[in-house]
Amino acid sequence: MIQYPKLTISDRLNQQRERLPLADLQETFKESWTVNEMWQVPFAITDSLAYEQAIQLLNVQNIVHYDNQSYVITQCTKTVSGGVSVYEVTASHLFYRLANNVRQNNVRTGTLTYGLSDAVNFMLANNDQGVTAKFIGDFPKIQIENLGNSSFNKFLQDYTSKFDASYVINNQQIIFYSATYLKQQPAIDTLFYQHDVENVKLSLDTTSLVNEVHCLGKPIDQGSGASSSQTKYQVDFIYRDNASIQKWGLQRGDTLSDDRFTDQASMTEYAKQTVQAQPIATMTTTAWDVVIKQCETVKLIMPNLDWQTAVALNGYDRNPFNKFSLPTITFDNASLAVNDINVAMFKHITNAHDNVGKTITQLQAALGDLQDGDLITDDDTIDKLNELGEIS
Question: Is residue 208 predicted with pLDDT exceeding 70?
Answer without folding.
Answer: yes
